[in-house]
Design goal:
Number of strands: 7
Strand content: 5-15%
Helix content: 40-55%
Structural class: alpha+beta
Strand order of the largest sheet: 3-7-6-5-4
Radius of gyration: 32 Å
Low-confidence stretches: 1-26
Distance between the termini: 88 Å
Shape: rod-shaped
Order of helices and strands: HHHHHHHEEHHHHHHHEHEEEE
Length: 355
């Protein structure tokens, strides 16, 4: 019996070394070599060895890991899941159970079953201690995947906060604060969204960071904070009210009224090609110097490109250099204050004819 066990041990060690190389780089195996590897026979031998009661935890780990990798090598995801679930259920004391469940989570991802994969990633976080595998934290890998596949804002908020709090050195904290603010907004947690925006603006790279899919992250956060801290007393309850007030002020050459109607947060004046956050696009100025001595006129109707959230009023006569100005009105998006949310503001000026 001892001789037979020794033969099997030698055979399994040889197979483990071969299949470890396969797991690391399956593309290096030729078709001829693949035909020589009888995986089913190897699995039987590994299972026989695994039944030995005298294995230590490292030996046990090596065999279970190889058996799972053999199944994955054949793209047998269902077989992998069944094998590892049975192992975890029958060996609750195994300290590598979080790793086996992680393999199952990735198996479900490979089958495009993201909701089930999410369940496994979350289960590992909640029920199993963290484990380092090849210098990688399993909990960190779970959180990284969860924020990618979870569709529930409340869950994503939970995962983002956990990433920020537990692994600040391994993530881009600045970007995650932006993502966190967006998730709070989706979940209508406006106070928390405001706090996340403040934390984002406090980061040293907030003004320079390039966030995929969010090119205006700094502008939006800055506007959110500044608008919250402002009086907001320049807004009108409806677009017709704002349009009528501005037109009346222009007719009467009432520059004081126009100065009052201008937004006090990020009001811009720029060409159509500029960005409203450019430094020279937000210089403070009074309408007085542009109204004195000029004959200002405006279109009877708003521009045809206006929509339910934005409107443009064409005006002219402001300057001999740039006569035409389009006054830009927009609907206020500020759910934090229901009395202001949905009002309209005069947010800026586009100088020159539309491109």
């Amino acid at each position: 019996m001892k001789k037979r066990y020794a033969i099997h041990t030698f055979f399994i060690i040889s197979i483990l070394s071969i299949f470890t190389a396969c797991a690391n780089n399956t593309s290096s195996i030729s078709e001829d070599e693949k035909r020589k590897l009888n995986i089913e026979e190897t699995q039987v031998e590994l299972q026989y060895l695994l039944e030995n009661k005298n294995l230590n935890s490292k030996q046990q780990y090596a065999i279970v890991n190889q058996m799972a990798n053999n199944l994955l090598y054949q793209n047998d995801y269902q077989g992998t899941i069944l094998f590892l679930n049975n192992w975890v259920e029958n060996h609750p004391e195994d300290k590598y159970n979080s790793y086996w469940l992680l393999m199952n989570a990735f198996s479900y991802l490979s089958m495009n079953a993201e909701p089930v994969a999410e369940y496994y990633f979350d289960r590992i976080l909640r029920q199993y201690p963290d484990l380092m595998v090849k210098d990688n934290s399993i909990h960190f890998m779970c959180l990284q995947n969860l924020i990618q596949i979870s569709t529930n804002p409340q869950n994503r908020i939970k995962y983002l906060n956990e990433l920020i709090n537990r692994f600040p050195e391994q993530i881009n904290t600045t970007e995650l604060y932006v993502r966190l603010e967006m998730e709070y907004e989706k979940d209508s947690q406006w106070d928390q969204a405001l706090n996340a925006a403040q934390l984002f603006l406090q980061q040293p790279d907030a003004t320079t960071i390039q966030i995929p899919g969010e090119p205006d992250a700094y502008k939006n956060a800055r506007h959110f904070i500044d608008f919250n801290n402002s009086s907001k007393d320049w807004t009108f309850q409806s677009l017709p009210e704002l349009e009528a007030a501005v037109k009346k002020a222009i007719r009467n050459y009432d520059w004081r009224a126009l100065d009052k109607y201008k937004s006090k947060v990020n009001f811009f004046s720029m060409s159509w090609k500029q960005d409203e956050m450019d430094a020279n696009a937000q210089e403070e100025f009074s309408m007085r110097s542009f109204m004195r001595g000029n004959r200002i006129r405006y279109a009877d109707e708003l521009d045809e490109t206006s929509n339910p959230n934005e409107a443009y009023l064409r005006t002219w006569g402001w300057s001999e250099y740039v006569s035409v100005w389009y006054l830009y009105f927009r609907k206020v998006n500020f759910p934090l204050d229901p009395d202001i949310h949905g009002n309209w503001e005069w947010a800026g000026i586009y100088m020159g004819n539309k491109l």
